[in-house]
Amino acid sequence: MSPVPAALLGGALIGLAASLLLLLNGRVAGITGIVAGLAGRDALWRVLFVGGMVLAGAAVGHLLPGSLQVTVHLPAGTLIAGGLLVGFGTRLANGCTSGHGVCGIARLSKRSIAATLVFMSAGVLTVFLVRHLVHA
Amino acid sequence: MKPLFSAFGCGALFGLGLAISGMGQPQKIMGFLDIFGAFDPTLAFVMAAAVGVHFIGQRIARRFKAPLLVPAFPTYEFTRVDRRLVIGSLVFGIGWGMVGFCPAPGIISAGFGTREGLLFVPSMLAGMAIFHGMETLRSLALTDETGAPAPSAAK
Question: N or C: more exposed end of chain A, with fewer CB within 10 A?
Fold first, then answer.
């Protein structure tokens, strides 16, 4: 599949999954919140959600070669530091790209629109600094 | 039992969408954020489609008195744009720009067995655990031994 139709189809499926989770389970499809709750009570549905996500993702990865391919090979230290920042930041902000960026914006939450503008801008600035200043 | 099946099904649909859309490829995320370089618009199409569908979907869901399989819809605890939201999003965005993974794509990448995903996800979980630890310490500092707010924290 060429990239734009794949992006639109994939995005629509993400939106549909979030809508069904709200309609059936009364839950917001925010991955940060779902994962953070794995350590608490009420963990079983979260385990199943994440399990379904991983299985379906891996199935696509095998059926559509290249769909989960990583071509930027960063040093381990960068991946670890980035992971720490993503984990800490998403918990402090109570949401990530799914919870704020998709679910929150879809219900026109001011908080989520603000969060999305901030993490997008921070991401743009970080990539700019790393790619165009450090590696210039 | 039914909410468990639906949770699995929704997770699978979510993972299917993420993987098909190309969001499991960190180079596409970094490309999207690289607006001054080799810009890759994929993420914009994914988000536009996801938000568009969910904008309608959540409105349909809210027409029901309650969710179909559980008693109640979520209530939103936080409504204000506060310092924690802004600082947290800032920290998240820096990490996102560094590695090109946000939580869900990182998890499916790790599930697929990539080196990048397998290094990223445990670190992300550690970041979440550090947050949890700091919150616990903070709440201990702000409460006395009975769990009531400490006098020093009254203001």
Answer: C
Closest CB to B101 among A49, A71, A86: A86
Q: What is the DSSP string of B62-130?
A: HTSSS-SSSS-----S--S--HHHHHHHHHHHHHHHHHS--HHHHHHHHHTT-HHHHHHHHHHHHHHHH
Interchain CB contact of B27 with A (< 8 Å) = yes
pLDDT of residue B154 exceeding 60, the answer is no
CB A47 within 8 A of CB A38: yes
Q: Is B71 on the interface with A (CB under 8 A)?
A: yes
Q: Is B94's Cβ below 8 Å from some Cβ in A? A: yes
CB contacts of B84 in chain A (<8 Å) are 92-94
Mean pLDDT, chain B, as a whole number?
A: 93
pLDDT in tens, B35-53: 999 899 999 999 999 999 9
8 Å CB contact of B93 and A123: yes
